[in-house]
Amino acid sequence: MRLLIAGGGGFRVPLVYRALASGRFAGLVSELVLYDVDPSRLAAVTAVLRSMPGPGAGPPVRATTSLPDALAGTQMVFAAVRPGGTAGRVADEKVAQDLGLLGQETTGAGGISYALRTIPHMLGLARQMREHSPEAWLINFTNPAGMVTEALVPVLGSRVIGICDSAGGLVQRAARAAGVALPDGRLDGVGYYGLNHLGWLYRLESGGRDVLPGLLADPRALQSFEEGRLFPQPFLAGLGALPNEYLYYYYRLDDARRAMRAMPVTRGESIHLQQQELYPRLAAAGTDAYRLWEEARRSREEGYLAEARANGEQRDEDDLAGGGYERVALAAMRALSGAGDTQLILNTRNSLPAASNAATAEAPPARAAIPGPPADAVVELPCTVTPDGALPLPQAEPGKEQMELLRRVKEVERLTVLAATEGTRDAALAAFARHPLVDSPDLASDLLAGYEHAFPALRKLWGGGAA
User: Which positions does UniProt annotate for substrate binding (predicted)?
Assistant: First the structure.
């Protein structure tokens, strides 16, 4: 199949190509098309791919700045775009941090800002897909992945699936710590519910027995992996679940803000400075391009969630090795193409497959896979992926406090999508005000004014909505 990467000049593109060059995904893709609006970034990334070592030969690569050209004949589209580049990420974080709020790119105020300016671009991609490759699937890794995917469902329906490696990584790390062997491509006995960057592992079975309570009661086992170290053991035992790493920003907000304020630069500033220096060097590095990229990638991985690691604690070597999201994306693509079903934690609509009923012409009402959130809302949960798409697996009902947080953040997500798709400034203000990490109309007004100053295109977005 032909695979198009939208955002083909992105820093992580070599991870996808590396996975396609050897191993389980070798031969899956017959041609890789890289599309980006920035030809200099395309030149840098193609230099890295050309210099990549190893015995495997990846698919032929073609780079283009024309989206219609890139879409022609494409069966799969993988989207990982960042409108505004890393400079935009800096503003997402700094506007919030300067107001005393959490400065993080996908969580809280920064995530809302990121979504407001990203959703219109992604809708443009989806409409171009409808015109030039109507049968193609869109695997969305553009952040904030849940909100972006929800905005695209009205255009692409079930042919858009959101991915993230964070939830699947949590499951794998918890299973290793508990001594549970998970069969490849199967999540039988795994219970996970939530939204992107806001989810909980609540069940982990081995031989028909839930071993998660034992893991949560074992301080030593919890200390063996990142999510187990992020939260006090008594807290996890009382919660009865393992939170996604991004829930650190909710459960330990004050610690996160203090750690971020103590850093000499924000995470976004660090990445922005790195990429400004790196990309021109990659394009001119010849056979040395891959080595330069790999050194930068490892440095970037070492800084991931640094605010959550005390006393200079280093990340696990398995995490520093990189990868994760590309394996999720390619596993989904392989199943969609008919090479065999698989099970993955994905972002898709919260509706179970409807039971057929030949006795009536009326379709039965959709049943929610996660009880509580609306059946038409995009959530993050285990799915079986087949050529028909991502089919959610039924989950338990979240606990009271988890449900309250999940519903409130989903309300914020839907307000953000409304603001971005309808140009409604009042909805954007409400999204900021309702977010649990803001929770203030006055701060919401200051935030939106700050983001409008940083991103003048937002003011144009409100042209068709409320003033």
Answer: 89, 143
Per-residue pLDDT of the chain (467 residues; tens, 9 = 90+): 999 999 999 999 999 999 999 889 999 999 999 999 999 999 999 999 999 987 667 999 999 999 999 999 999 999 999 999 999 999 999 999 999 999 999 999 999 999 999 999 999 999 999 999 999 999 999 999 999 999 999 999 999 999 999 999 999 999 999 999 999 899 999 999 999 999 999 999 999 999 999 999 999 999 999 999 999 999 999 999 999 999 999 999 999 999 999 999 999 999 999 999 999 999 999 999 999 999 999 988 887 666 665 555 554 655 544 458 899 999 999 999 999 999 999 999 999 987 655 555 566 778 999 999 999 999 999 999 999 999 999 999 999 999 999 999 999 999 999 999 999 999 999 999 999 999 999 999 999 999 999 999 999 999 844 43
Q: Could you list the active site residues? A: 165, 246
Task: Label residue 227 exposed, middle or buried (CB < 10 Å: 0-12, 13-18, 19+).
Answer: buried
User: Phi/psi at 105 (nearest 5 deg)?
Assistant: -75, -30
Q: What is the pTM of this model?
A: 0.94
Kindly report the number of other CB atoms within 10 A of residue 16's CB atom.
Answer: 28
